[in-house]
């Protein structure tokens, strides 16, 4: 058994097709079939059911899939460790940063880090927190920022700050003069939400459900400033992080604390549990933690 066999196995399952996988891997379909047949012979089980019109992974194949993914990730970690020994401090890493978080909290930290470590190449990948978690598990990025909680059995966590989500309404909204309300008072409101794939979407929806209702979502966006402007025009209500309210001019909107439940916004650095982290990545994790600690 070798890594090539496992990589081919994973690609076939990903594409659900020998022909598509052969194109992606740039090998002939007969060669690919031969490699998988050899792997099945070594394991003593069938990985795929080829008797139907559409290729299906077998139950035994599903179990082997988990082990194959672990082996490939371990091999990737070994390669990263070797590269780190060669590069030492002149390392590189991929940092996942949700746009809502990045725009308010990280520009200064990133600038300071690059001034301190000019030889380190940090590539920033902007994507929603939930999508970023999947990217971490797949090994596509090294470390990212998440909104807690996350699965503790899948990720190592370094907490950064604890904040809340606040409600934004138009100045002429019936609730605009209120300082604090309960979530159930929003039962009949129209919601302006961050796009699905953002943790903020899940956090607001879960809070509404906990209060006994499913929110009526009329618009989703990746841009917090657009949501605020929409709320200002009384097109709906929006939840935004407390840090945004602290940095923006909110004199033209109502900003309200919501309870029962209160929506927390606890940020942390996370990375795949027990994965190898390069020297550069470890330096970044420590640098970010110290930067946020100094701001408290």
TrEMBL record:
UniProt family annotation: Belongs to the LysR transcriptional regulatory family.
InterPro entries: HTH-type_LysR_regulators (IPR050950), LysR_HTH_N (IPR000847), LysR_subst-bd (IPR005119), WH-like_DNA-bd_sf (IPR036388), WH_DNA-bd_sf (IPR036390)
Species the sequence originates in: Alteribacillus iranensis
CC annotations in GO: cytosol
UniProt-listed Gene3D superfamilies: 3.40.190.290, Winged helix-like DNA-binding domain superfamily/Winged helix DNA-binding domain
Protein's name according to its UniProt entry: DNA-binding transcriptional regulator, LysR family
Key words of the record: DNA-binding, Transcription, Transcription regulation
HTH lysR-type domain: residues covered: 1-58
Name of one Pfam family that matches: LysR_substrate
Single GO MF descriptor: DNA binding
